[in-house]
């Protein structure tokens, strides 16, 4: 699998010949000012919840190649009402077989509303099985015990976890979350974008190392293979 980071919680995962874009918040993010969203191609846009810092660029990227939007019923319906009709709505606990693999929507503990203040449904995370691997994209979440159910069902190769604290779990709880889902490899997200979620990179990496895990803090625009 190939993973490209576009800042905040936005990643492009290429797997099984398909491009999966998670939570695109790029143009409003000063840290991602060198990213040209006109060059981003996606087959799917996967949205964890409706907050602006996770959906800001959906409409513009959708215009480029009309990817299918995967999210909760409420988020998919909100975009459909804006003319973005290619959607696949889901709800917590549900799974679906797509052409890239299987996606299961799992719980997240956060909040969700759309930019106009309308109801955004419950926030979510996702577990994706593709090309004999499985990964967990947590979305915005606190640490919660339901994460242990992920380890019961899947062998998680790596996880995208929020680490910025204040609005989501921080370093200590993300360490525990990795234990709960059963992975030693974590890709950090939802940090540094705003003053309230800035972190010390060295301390964060060391904290995971101290618990026998690897925390990957990707550079914006960087691509890695997993």
UniProtKB/TrEMBL annotation:
Belongs to the UPF0173 family. Residues 7-190 form the Metallo-beta-lactamase domain. Keywords: Hydrolase. InterPro entries: Metallo-B-lactamas, RibonucZ/Hydroxyglut_hydro, UPF0173, UPF0173_UPF0282_UlaG_hydrolase. GO terms for molecular function: hydrolase activity. The keyword Ribosomal protein does not apply. This is UPF0173 metal-dependent hydrolase JMN32_24500.
